[in-house]
Amino acid sequence: MSLVDRFSLDGQAAIVTGASSGLGRMIAGGLAAAGCAVLVTARREAELEETVRLVRDRGGRAVAASADVRDRGHGARLVDRAIAEFGRLDGVVLNAGMSTGAPSEDEDLEAFAEVLEVNVTAQVALASAAARAMIPAGGGWMIAMSSILGTRAGTGGGVAAYTASKGAVEQLVRELGRQWAPKGIRVNGLAPGYFPTAMNEPITNSPDRRAQIMGRIPLGRAGAAEDIEAVTVFLASDAARYLVGAMIPVNGGMSCS
Ligand SMILES: NC(=O)c1ccc[n+]([C@@H]2O[C@H](COP(=O)([O-])OP(=O)(O)OC[C@H]3O[C@@H](n4cnc5c(N)ncnc54)[C@H](OP(=O)(O)O)[C@@H]3O)[C@@H](O)[C@H]2O)c1
Questions:
Q1: What is the CATH number of the domain that holds 40?
Q2: pLDDT tens digits, one per residue of 60-75
Q3: Which listed residue (162, 180, 194, 195) is catalytic?
Q4: For a pocket test of ligand 1, which of 40, 43, 99, 209 has the largest count of ligand atoms closer than 8 A to its C-beta?
Q5: What Cα–Cα distance (Å) separates residue 204 from each residue in 103, 147, 214?
């Protein structure tokens, strides 16, 4: 196999969560363009169908399956559906996420717990279900979505739930990577900086906050689809076959200082 061929995902199949918008939609498009069939999932069905259409426009193969990741059974159902659709499951991208904002002296514990449920527990639910299918089939790959806030404090109002959840994701990447590498599954993660998605609308729509963020990005621009999809394809591919437990900072240099 040539070096370039090792970046191909031809013949593979994966599940991408949080694929109704933002980074998940970008990642689904990138994986599919590299040859990987994708089961795209989130709650909003019309937006998922738009993701399917965008993937197909690029010549890729995609199927939509709506699910709420707070439903503890969602992982097993998505794995079964992917295998029914594609006959195999090589990878999962654990991307669905949410945030709340409040100064922590006013922390709403129900909201805090929901962020941990969506950003952490739900990732474990799908990862475990996928591992149960992948291990007997010979292995696979998983990519979990952290954030630059997985290793540092926020900058604006309070984001304790979000930072705690992303710190947990990074530890999961290391722990699941350690447990499952001997069983053939490579677990790695992405830690994006600033991509102007729906989650970041409060920043994008505030000239002051946007200028503040841009001032922290040495490359001088926000992240774009091409930036996240290429790194994701790399982590999914044979080219990354010796990477386990790695967190890739996709942030234009925000974490350099
Ligand atoms: N944008 C950035 O700069 C940035 C930086 C660092 C990390 N991240 C991370 O990247 C991931 C994607 O975020 P984004 O920026 O692309 O934001 P986004 O456009 O708001 O996407 C969030 C996705 O998560 C899904 N989701 C949320 N709650 C869900 C639930 N209960 N069940 C199923 N799906 C759910 C949403 O779909 P539905 O609403 O349709 O269910 C949506 O597809 C998150 O984990 C986020 O923390 C983003």
A1: 3.40.50.720
A2: 999 999 999 999 999 9
A3: 162
A4: 43
A5: 21, 17, 10
